[in-house]
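Suppose you are handed only these lines of text.
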Amino acid sequence: MPLPRRIVLVGPMGAGKSTIGRQLARELGYHFLDSDRMIEERCGADIPWIFDVEGEEGFRQRESAMLKELAEVGASVLATGGGAVMKAENHPFLKQDAVVVYLKASLDQQIERTRKDRNRPLLQNDDPEGVLRRLFELRDPIYTSLADVVMLTDRKSPRLVVRQILNRLNPRTPRQRRKVRKEGRHHD
Ligand code: S3P
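From them, the structure of the protein bound to shikimate-3-phosphate can be written out as follows.
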């Protein structure tokens, strides 16, 4: 397939969207956009503060506005927050000119990778594992239905996941990709 204008990463907390997205963008010579970090910059406060003061719904409104804005940025890899798929009104902005990649992680991996986290308000309670399980049951079908590509990330390095995504998107060799990038073309 020709290289898409945008690659949008969806998936649960702890799937590696930011790390993988940054490396994928670097490989492609695309901008890397991280919707959570951009919401924080715009707001001048971190996500726990936004949840605290404005509630989850306040955060979701900011998230929807940000996803709409970022849908217009070409040649980009976008890492979304785990809940970005929950509002149907966000779906057209996630899909716009994009290949949507679902970074899928088992519950065990999600638990492992978020264990020491203090920056995710939904997990700051007595039963973060139960929350992750319930969110996974609710969201997995939505991630799957939105995705053009489903990529399992368990026990894989970010580097390997990036390579596998590139193979799925565009089965060209790295050398050919560099040539295309140099010439500023994104299509065959
Ligand atoms: C959320 C995931 C977080 C962040 C917020 C809510 C969620 O992003 O948007 O804490 O609802 O799953 P990550 O998936 O990058 O952790």
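What can we learn from it? The beta strands are 6-10, 31-34, 76-79, 98-104, 149-152. The first strand starts at residue 6 and ends at 10.
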